[in-house]
Amino acid sequence: MTARARRTGRSRSTRLWRTGLVVGIIVLLVGFRLVEQIGPERHPDDRFTVVRVIDGDTVELLGGDRLRLLGVDTPERDEPLFDEARQFLVELALGRSLELEFAGSRRDRYGRLLALAYVDDSVLVNKVIIENGLGYLYLFRDSPTDHPAFAAMMQAQRAALDRSLGVMAPVAEPEPYYVASQSSFRFHRPGCRSADTYTPDRWRRFGSREEALREGLSPCRNCRP
After folding, report:
1. Which of 18, 155, 168, 187 is the most exposed place for a label (fewest CB within 10 A)?
2. Are 71 and 149 in contact (CB under 8 A)?
């Protein structure tokens, strides 16, 4: 065998070894993520420390994971009270270690953790955001609405409506009525494109925005009622 052939053989062996190492690392990382998704609930630890608040319902945790607070929706960046909702979460959670309770899917389609979050053992972050009028209860058909935390968030939304706090305050120019699908937790303005397919036998009609909110519905993100 020539010196050139020997060098070529060693080069191929090195490339194969490196490729095998990379594949092994990827398998370990994927395996860790899958185990994490089906593993037991965790207690507060350094990994659940909030290092950055992204908006009123999403934070970044130590280690890079993002947490989306389950069952609550706060104003987007271009909407009123965005800054107030974000600052509220900064004051409540930044630098704190959270206790997370998972109810249903542990991650959303973007890879973010989905959880109920507690500080000081008993303060439910998801609930106090709604209670202060800085977010809406945000449910889906598969939401565990029989969970005590969701009942508490529903009560918090009604309490915020009673006090006309923040996003629960009456709007300046209300619609004559609002509509929602029988199977949806979103309500819409009458002309919303998201409600174009609704027929009278498939929709619910609400005389006011407050009426829909009191039933646990949240505003459509397209028409923003």
Report:
1. 18
2. yes
Per-residue pLDDT of the chain (225 residues; tens, 9 = 90+): 554 444 444 555 555 445 554 444 443 444 434 334 433 444 555 679 999 999 999 999 998 999 999 999 999 998 999 999 999 999 999 999 999 999 888 999 999 999 999 998 889 999 999 999 999 999 988 888 889 999 999 999 999 999 999 999 999 899 999 999 988 899 999 989 988 877 778 889 999 999 999 999 999 999 999
Which amino acid would we find at residue 132? N
Q: Count Cβ atoms below 10 Å from residue 87 Cβ, excluding itself.
A: 14
Q: Where are the domains of the chain?
A: 46-162, 171-219
| CATH number, span 46-162 | 2.40.50.90
Rounded to an integer, what distance in angstroms lies between the CA atom of residue 41 and that of residue 216? 27
Q: For strand 136-137 and strand 203-206, is the pairing parallel, antiparallel, or unpaired?
A: unpaired
